[in-house]
Specification:
Blueprint (H helix, E strand, L loop, with lengths): L16 H4 L2 E5 L2 E6 L1 E9 L4 H15 L2 E7 L14 E9 L12 E4 L2 H7 L8 E5 L5 H6 L16 E5 L1 H8 L7 H5 L2 H12 L5 H10 L4 H20 L5 E5 L16 H16 L3 E5 L6 H7 L7 E5 L3 H13 L3 E5 L7
Helix pairs in contact: 2-7, 5-7, 7-9, 8-9, 10-11
Length: 346
């Protein structure tokens, strides 16, 4: 679910008195720190699965009962070279034990899958924030590609943060060595390892993610089980490593809704429903002319499911064609819309 109401305690730097003075409780070999809210940002190359990782963390957080708000940040559909700043994709999630409205300004936690992700996002991180980096990607060439003259993990530039260097790729490949996968195939599951680690850190439920993976890869059960193994390995790493001595609890929102069926709604889905409602209220057929490109494609996908409401969708060969079709439909008496997102049309 998306958040609805803003808390006056929210500040621009993402901290508040409750977080700073959080209470600790022993939990075996690990301590548990209670927080009232957290802002997490997952960042990596556009092929690192950060949107999926953030979406899964969001779904489990919603089912747990926290209020939340998200901010996906998509790169251009025409991908920049891997490991460069323009190619960084991120997903930010703000969740709390009280009503919130915004996805937050300054993350408390950054998961950086490579040097580009670190450099693109470090300016938003307040001092004292936790930074988890995939050390396997911090090669000399990768760091030079984004303008690092020295290794930021060793030159002291991150001394003001709680840095957690984790060889995510190596650990993922090791966890999947029993599977019949190439190294490249195994490396693709490193986002699930990161998700498992963050799920342990913030006591997120795990059953829903495992069920989702088995459903998503139903036709490829070996891939499903490999991703689940990586997810569990990340959880176990958090539980056993000495680098993470503290885990965190964010209680369900005090104003939690009563038990029932709820919808996790995005801006694109809300727009699609709003367009359908507007066409019904205006007693006009709805027409969408659109060139499919991330992240606008979801609107085309959703509206195409609602022909029963008189909705007509047209997948055009480019943005200009989509706009032209919408103009023609408008002259023909329809409530006409075009959607696009990309480098061709502003």
């Amino acid at each position: 679910m998306t958040s609805q109401v803003s808390s006056p305690a929210e500040q621009a730097d993402g901290t508040d008195e409750t977080v700073v003075g959080a209470q600790r409780e022993p939990a075996g070999a690990k301590d548990v720190r209670r927080l009232d809210r957290v802002i997490i940002r997952f960042a990596g190359d556009s092929g690192d699965g950060m949107q999926l990782t953030g979406d899964r963390f969001t779904s489990e957080t919603a089912s747990f009962g926290n209020d939340l708000s998200t901010l996906p940040n998509f790169p251009a559909e025409i991908r920049a070279p891997a490991g460069t700043l323009p190619g960084v994709s991120s997903f930010q999630l703000h969740f709390a034990d009280h009503d919130i409205l915004t996805p937050g300004d300054a993350p408390n936690v950054l998961v950086a899958m490579n040097p580009a992700a670190l450099k693109a996002n470090i300016g938003d991180m307040p001092r004292g924030a936790e930074i988890i980096v995939n050390t396997d990607e911090f090669t000399k060439r990768a760091m030079q590609k984004v303008g690092y003259d020295s290794d930021p993990l060793r030159d002291g530039s991150l001394d003001g943060y709680h840095l957690h260097p984790v060889p995510l790729t190596t650990l993922t490949v090791e966890a999947l060595k029993e599977f019949d996968l190439t190294r490249k195939e195994a490396e693709r599951s490193k986002n699930m390892f990161a998700l498992g680690l963050l799920s342990w850190m913030y006591h997120r439920p795990t059953e829903g993610t495992e069920k989702f993976l088995r459903s998503k890869f139903a036709k490829k059960p070996d891939i499903a089980e490999a991703n689940i193994a990586a997810f569990r390995a990340g959880w176990n790493f958090g539980e056993t490593t000495e680098d993470f001595a503290v885990s965190y609890e964010v209680a369900p929102a005090a104003s939690a809704f009563p038990p029932g069926v709820y919808r996790n709604i995005s801006g694109n889905l809300a727009l699609a429903y709003g367009l359908i409602a507007a066409s019904r209220q205006a007693d006009l057929p709805l027409f969408l002319g659109s060139y499919p490109i991330t992240p606008a494609s979801d609107i085309l996908h959703e509206l195409s499911r609602h022909k029963n409401f008189g909705v007509r969708t047209f997948q055009a060969e480019d943005e200009i064609a989509g706009i032209g079709a919408a103009l023609g439909a408008a002259f023909g008496g329809s409530l006409a819309v075009t959607t696009t997102s990309g480098p061709v049309w502003p």
